[in-house]
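The records we work with from here on pair a chain with its fold. Here is one such record, which you should read through line by line:
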Amino acid sequence: MVDPNRSLEIFGVKLVAINAANGKKLLMSVALVVVFVVLSATLRWLARHLLGTAGIKTVFRTRQIIRILGIFVLIVGLLSLWFDDPTRLATAVGLVTAGLAFAFQKVVTALAGYALILRGKAFGIGNRITMGGVRGDVIALGFIQTTIMEMGQAPAEQSAEPAMWVKARQYTGRIVTVTNDKVFDSPVFNYSRDFPFIWEKMTLPVGYKDDRGAAEKILLDAAARHAANLDGVSEDDLRELERRFALKRTDAGPKVYWRLTDNWLEMTVRFVSCAHGVRDVKDTMSREVLDGLDKAGIGIASSTYDIVGLPPLRIIRDRPVVRRP
């Protein structure tokens, strides 16, 4: 140790910024980081066990608040240890901020997207969304990335990118991470945040000679049995939905629409369903509709042709055949 600052010198070479004072600051910084890690892990463990019955969203928000506050306290503590002079601190913070903003533009944008998501303007844990071309349920949310449990696509959407091998809105088994900056670059489709229901439809081709009234009743009865029950939604929530989305309560009931085609009458029943479990609902409805059509003697129209046989052929000659010797 040399000079009044007790700097470290090795073989006559004095090491820059390595002295007794900085060594103490380094040890105190390590101790502060260790305390932060232990205390943060303990608080998050307590939140998970004490608030486990309050729901996954409450636990997630509590853990995120603990993490953010802990990181803020850690940064303030480290800055207080290393920069006791406010002028030096301002200069250092300015240089570091400018360098980080230039080198980590995507990271900074992702952090800004994380702040926007936490404010509740886009989505939350458990919501079914489409973000950055990925559709599924949000299972985790970090500072930089959002983790999504991917699900497949309906048959009409198989040409969309990226193409899926699962031809239904069910989990594919892949867990996809999407950077949070996508909330600024592309639209985020939320299926369950403000209104946890979606409008679904089922189309049935019916021949013009069949009983159209009976076919419509079969569709309406199946939709009424399996459509989402909006009676569980409170009156205040319904009024808020009407105010925000111009939703009319008469639009929530099942309804059958007719469309004339060259080959058959296309009946489409439109109904409200929960955002999750749509395939199970439509599967059960399809079975009940088929049973009802069979009992009513109504077939499903199609453009196929049945060849049942050929008529007998008879050859008639206009004049007799003359045989030559």
Notes: Residues 7-103 form one domain. The chain has three domains: 7-103, 128-190, 197-296.
